[in-house]
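Following up on my earlier thread - several people asked me to post the actual chain instead of describing it. Fair enough. Here it is, all 252 residues.
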Amino acid sequence: MSHDNKMSSKSAFNTHLSAVYTFKNFINCEENMIAFAAAKSVAFETEVYNPLFLYGESGTGKTHLLHAIGNHICDHYNNMDVMYITAEMFINEYSKVSDDIQENEIREKYRDVDVLLIDDIQLMSGNEKMLRELEFTVDALIRDEMQVVISADKPPKKLDGFSTRMKKLLGMGLVTELRAPNNISKETIIRMKAQEQGVLLEEDVFKYISANCNADVAEIEGVMTSIAAYYQIYKPVINLETAKNILKNVFC
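Reply from S.P.:
Thanks for posting it. Predicted structure:
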């Protein structure tokens, strides 16, 4: 990535980034340490992984890391154009094209960025036209030494409906997995979220939530949001009976 080739205005450029997701509030556990380190390396430019390909089940933090990369770069390099898109956004935009002029404008938009973050590309499976456009876009950016970061629910070689060439292109950088947290990591995450939200829980509540949550960071965050909302109103130390009552419609 070059920091000197553009003087763009961030206020005029739609990054599609959510400021909610940062490296600081990413829950880093043993199961995603490599992915977290790789994402920071790309954002801080300490290592060159291009493309960086993150894969894992839903709720493991892929989207969070994509936004965190983009937010860090935008905060520290004002002259860089960063864009986050989902596969659905990519498909929807191309589906509205009515002539060659519009199509070329879209191509230029995606290929004229310094950093392109693409989420959930497995959703393009079977869409030959979109996959061809994606392949040309990723290839053009990498050849121009612009950064590409991609997420999916499986590694490149297992993506259905993707050409052999596309799979090789996606796998030519670093491919790393985010896995769901184990029971020990889940309890650690719950403790971190409780501390972050200023919520006081009795010891057996941590174990209760950990035992009943699926191995999904997104679900844990939702559960802790429910606990925190109750705590903000009533301010008690949350005991096991109270926790069960708060979460009775969550843990069915």
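The chain has two domains: 32-177, 183-247. That should answer part of your original question.
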